[in-house]
């Protein structure tokens, strides 16, 4: 890419962050090879995929088409109309078959590299199941004929499992893509900047309910942001707990494209069980009084659509826990859905007062622990733990002799030399508790139990993570090098 190209392809100021994603897209679109290439762009809804792709097409003079739910003939007609407008043809071509349309789209790059974007691609495949084979055949003809062509076709979609299926296994498109870009939610630090929140406590409170989905700040809450931590409750009441705001029902919409009616009902029940504290398949099945097979189907569906993540236990690798990836879903199923009827009939403030305790225990506490784990892996300097962390997990350590099970919310492991999973730290995370020396004593006991079981604890640093602060005695222990203390300021600005 020349210097002039670099200026031309500068990321528009209107796009917040997304530096890495933009660089990947520009590099793909400017691929110098004289053959057509294919890229895929995926990510959950509302993450800004369309905004990015529209901007890329505009900056580079490319073609952008957004599919809609329609019959095949209607989609071809719309595509033909927009293609004619783009090429300034006097009349639409009036394609009757996808073979004609795909050949015409690929021909756009005969002269120079050109991005051609088809957004919501799974919608077109649902209408025309043969479309992946049509695209594969068109690429094969161009490559076999050694025709000079530099079209950079980008296929995008929000249906994660469908996109995965379209580009893996026996699919005609398998192995054809040279770019596989996932547009993920903003991390907790980026989200704080995006919302314009400088107070770390307020930033975490907001992130616990809306996460890092950029779209929620605009139309969904009308750019309403809380002024300070004292305004948080009132902000919730006028936005997420307000039936007249679009975000009030957004959590339900997240599942609409992913499952039929019966599956959605079970998925909502499973999410409610996980939001209440159940984390394993057995716990969810027991909570819902359903067979394990029924629950497993819903868990698999939610996992395939990136709404749940499976995480191993740090101390018991065979134990797998499920965690809701989208904070809005967790908040909705813990707080909103159980109180939906009341919210539609009463003042939100009175409902919120009754639900606040559930929010603190079922939403805030686990979310804070997850943010601590993300900090340990993504933001902590190697010197913080004595090595570069590669994983931070929740650990549960049974001690049958005492009929106890010890929980550690932030267990950090990393590579030292040739050893890939050295225990670097065992930590407790408490959102609303001022942590005391008793918390350090609890960590020391966990380390003693691990040592008795043969675990190498020589490099394991005790760590306390708190959203409320630390008692003087614990700070004195930190001064003696006995414990690492991580508060909100370090989570949001330190390493």
Automatic annotation (TrEMBL):
Domain of life: Bacteria
Entries under PANTHER family matching the protein: ATPASE (PTHR34704:SF1)
Protein name, as recorded: ArsR family transcriptional regulator
Organism in which the protein naturally occurs: Streptomyces silvisoli
